[in-house]
Every structure is written in C-alpha cells, then in structure tokens.
Specification:
alpha+beta
C-alpha cells in the first residue's frame, strides 16, 4: 500500500469523504476574496461578471491596508467593468477597470482627499491613485500614476 493510500484510508476513518470537495481553511468567509472584501463587490454593475482572472492579490492587499488605516469599511463603487459598462460610464479605452485591476472606493465620513493622500503615500505602491469629488480610484497597473 502506498503512503497516499494509507493516508486516505486513515482519513476515511476520521470522517473524511473522498467524494466531497472540501474547502481549504483559509480563514475567509464563503464568497470572500480577502478578510473584508467579497468577490461580488468587484463585479461589473451591468452584467454581474468579474474578471476572468479574479481580483489581484496586490489590489486586495492595497484595499486591506486602506481599511486598516482608517478603521472603517471600504465601499467599492466600481471594480471590474465589462467593455459595455466601461463605455457607458465614459471610462478610458485602456481602463484598469477593464483588466480587473482597479477599484473606485469611498469610506463613510472620510474625505476622498484623505484617502487619496494615504494611498499616494503607501511605500512601494506602483499603481494608480486618482482623486475625485466623491470617491478615490486605486489600481495596480505596475507603474506609478497619479491624478
């Protein structure tokens, strides 16, 4: 008997069912892609799809850093945008939203300029940060861009 067969035989005695797909314990709630963000928050507002590659870890880390700093929930206005939705909202032809690498966000009770200032100051963030009247844009494009 192989080591794998021995392990499986032992696991069955412990209640493991080899016909069931088990979720790896990542300490994440079902449907969540990080501690505080659900996949559905990044879905396109027009079609409900998310980018085929999911949400980049770097973007999630950036958002978690922002949430930790302000100690409040971060609300995502726009994550992934399908081409139709991007065109409808006047998004740039090469928008990071089309690539699933961006998020427009707001935090209740926090001026978007303060969010921008914090995001701009994060050491090592090689991505975009944009300041708008009612929200802040962040992305992980791989090089620094500010507006």
């Amino acid at each position: 008997m192989t080591d794998i067969a021995n392990l499986e035989a032992w696991a069955i005695t412990q209640g493991y069912d080899p016909d069931v797909e088990y979720q790896v314990d990542t300490a994440l709630r079902p449907g969540y892609v990080s501690q505080h963000f659900a996949l559905k928050e990044f879905a396109c507002k027009c079609c409900g799809r998310t980018h085929k590659n999911g949400v980049p870890t770097q973007l999630l880390d950036f958002l978690e850093d922002i949430r930790t700093h302000f100690g409040k929930p971060v609300n995502i206005n726009s994550g992934y945008r399908c081409p139709n939705h991007n065109a409808a909202v006047g998004g740039a032809k090469g928008s990071q939203h089309l690539k699933g690498t961006a998020a427009d966000l707001w935090i209740s009770g926090v001026d978007p300029q303060k969010v921008y200032d914090f995001a701009d100051g994060l050491v090592g963030h090689a991505g975009g940060v944009g300041d708008y009247d009612t929200f802040t844009h962040i992305d992980v494009r791989g090089h620094k861009a500010r507006w």
